[in-house]
Amino acid sequence: MIAAAPGLWPSDARPRVLIVDDSADVHRLLCARLKSEGLDFVSALSGEEGLRLAADPAVLPSLILLDMDMPGLHGLNVLQALKANPATLEVPVIVVSGNQMAQDKVRAFDLGAVDYITKPFEMTELRVRVRQALRMRQLIQMLAQRAQIDGLTGLWNRSFFNQRWSEEYARAARYGHPLSVAMTDVDHFKSINDTYGHAAGDVVLQGVAKVLLRECRQHDLVCRYGGEEFVIVMPETSALDAASVCERIRAALERERWPRHPDRIVTLSIGIAGSCGGVTLSPDQWVEVADGNLYGAKRAGRNRLIWSDVTAQGVFPSVRAA
Amino acid sequence: MNNAKRPSATTPIVSKYADDPEMSELVGLFVSELPQRTDALLDAFRTQQWEIVQRISHQLKGASAGYGFPTIGAAAGKVEDVVRSGPIAESGVVQRLDESVRELVALCQRAKGSHSPG
After folding, report:
1. What is the ipTM of this complex?
2. How far apart are CA B42 and CA B53, in angstroms?
3. Is there a domain that residue A153 lies in?
4. Which residues of A touch B23 (CB under 8 A)?
5. Partner-chain contact B26 A32, CB within 8 Å
6. Any idea what the CATH number is for the domain that residue A178 is in?
7. Domain presence at residue A33
8. pLDDT per position as a tens digit, A204-240
9. Distances in Å between the alpha carbon of A44 and those of A59, A199, B59?
10. Fewest CB atoms within 10 Å of the CB: A115, A135, A270, B43?
11. Given an 8 Å threshold on Cβ–Cβ distance, is A26 in contact with B77?
12. Residue A46 sits in which domain range?
């Protein structure tokens, strides 16, 4: 079975709960009573501190328990700010308040709270509601990620590539970091399908995905681009280094033996566009250069790679495998 | 006629969670900090710092039941309600606030974290 795309399941072994309440007694109480749920806690004694911690990448809460009536920033304002910030928008918020007025509950739900618990709270009920909010969050995350996974190969799909490529491009452009992208295509895939059938073609695509995952490095992003095409994003990698990674992939796939058809060799053509830093092309143009190199590799006889430095268009065909 | 035994004004109020191993230590801490809070509450009342009166009573209302003292929580809620009910300057309100603060302080003074004698 092909390994799932990296990060498919959230690494929430111990979900972190941010408690925002001006009463230290409430913090101690919640920590003691929710300890058995296997949670980690972060405490904020004001709305302002809560907002800062919620958006801190080192904290990344899975759930926020938010008091309403606090000196300074009121809980509803905190909730509004959390939902206006893309970094905290998705974090579920349970309001824990002494205020039992229906209009406050309605307002909190309208602003995006997932639940509203009134103080004094009943501990068994609180535990169940916390559990429920965390379960819902995990399900939503799983659904969102599944929508970005290719069902056949378990790799990220094209939609995820589009999103991540834009992000990696923006980061490389801002900081002048190296970045490469490789477009790959299985050689003679139509003939595999025609000769052995579509089921065998699917097995080949799964096998290619497995080789790509095995030969790529931890921070490379491997996606199925569509059909028999795959794309690899290689952050912090120059075109020359990307060519070295891709040559390893090309050679590994060529060595791969297919149990049901041991005589059949499956190969890849690869086109790479990379930069040592400094961006002159748009993200789409960059992919077009990689695509152009891929078709150059096809025209030159397949089972090879061609790479270009997008800041100094050079072409370096790989040694063709025996 | 009601023959039920009524708690006197000096009967200790023992936390519902006195025997709960998960809570006993925290309840002890909560009780040990109550004198500080009642002092601060009385001080704020005497100096007419109504916002502080409201803040302390609000916090006690929210936490007391969780530490096994629902009567203290309810009494704190009464203080908060009076502060929120209208202009404190009105004599009737001040008197009601005085009574509710005294009741809350008296209850806090009877709070005990365990069954063992003081």
Report:
1. 0.81
2. 8
3. no
4. 32-33
5. yes
6. 3.30.70.270
7. yes
8. 999 999 999 999 999 999 999 999 999 999 999 999 9
9. 12, 56, 15
10. A135
11. no
12. 16-146
